[in-house]
What we know:
Layout: E1 6-7, E2 18-19, H1 25-35, H2 57-66, E3 77-89, E4 99-111, E5 132-135, E6 141-144, H3 158-165, H4 171-175, E7 179-184, E8 188-190, E9 197-200, E10 206-212, E11 220-227, E12 237-241, E13 248-250, E14 262-266, E15 271-274, E16 282-283, E17 296-302, E18 307-312, E19 315-322, E20 330-335, E21 341-350, H5 357-369, H6 371-376, H7 386-392
Amino acid sequence: FNWQDFNIFPNSRRDKVVFKNPLPDYCQCEVQAMTGPGHPHSIHWYKGHPLVQSYNQETQTQATSQRRVNTTPSPPIHSYYTRQTTSRRHHHGERYGPYRHRERRLRIQVKSRFCGSQSDSMGGSVSRGMKQMKTDGNGNVERVPPPHTSEPSEKLPVRLEMALDQPSEEKVEQVSHAWNPDDRSLNIFVKENDPFTFHRHPVAQSTDCIRGKQCYTSGLHVFEIYWQSRQRGTHAVVGVATKDAPLHSPGYQSLVGSSVHSWGWDLGRCKAYHNADNIPGTPYPLQDTSYQAPDRFLMVLDMDLGTLAFSAKGKYLGVSHAGFKGKAVFPIISSVWGHCEVSMKYLTGVSPGPSSLSAWCRRSIRMSMGQDRIAKGDMDRLTLPTAIKEFLVYR
């Protein structure tokens, strides 16, 4: 069977498919077996004649007499489309008049022993395990690990939960905890219109850092870091450091955490570094080196316990570093990506010492109410003194 035996004339009537050569007998039998006996909406095949629709009883009788049992082996299936025009009588009150011609697409499967197998079709084989590569603004190229399906999470400490429940600090207070334009590498500058964001120049073979304005020795402090994953490059590290930590280094390295004066989390390698020149880093979070940190996450600095932790997407990732209780540290970031921009906002802080009894009572009431009811203002409906209701909503 050759597909050149028939031809579809684009300029002719749309309900005709004319065959230049008669169809083989086995093809006629297959089509008749699929279409069944004569029916007002069935399609009939004729050797050397157009494909038409018939409504007379003679054609139905002819189609029934020509039908016979298929004895040929089942060849692979190939499909093509043709069109069938039907007319239907409508009520006289319809919009388009008593007759309306509608066109119905019919799919006719023609079995041919000369058609190729389905496995040879285009797009049948798709490459799997394709590696993704990324490059920084200075020409570095590295392989991106596949995304990890499970997200590590640990129990959120109660003290951190109470800190996140209270509203964020005012903008004036947040600016006082932002990046320090006087304590940075020369390849980094703080944006004039946004004191929470710094910009790094596209300098090759250079690792640059910037510290925050405030030095922390006590209390619990929560920072929001916004660092787009496509601007991190090969060495993107966030953490804390003392005033003795270096702010610049030639080449590319995880500068924060490389010495005894800094503690950092490498977002690309998912490792926690401290004194990495002598001690290798440890996987973080939860011994998982394939974790993909989102663009926005929280850095939690608890100077009362001497720990550094992180939280992302509402899940607590656990403690990454410990052991700097009694030290004075600054928030710090090291970057190698050209034109990268990183923002840091100080969300809230908790004074040193245990939480008061009134704070615990407020936590219990707010947990019983739920965030949805608090957002709707149901707290004002409680039969409590106004001063207590103001305390419950942090006013």
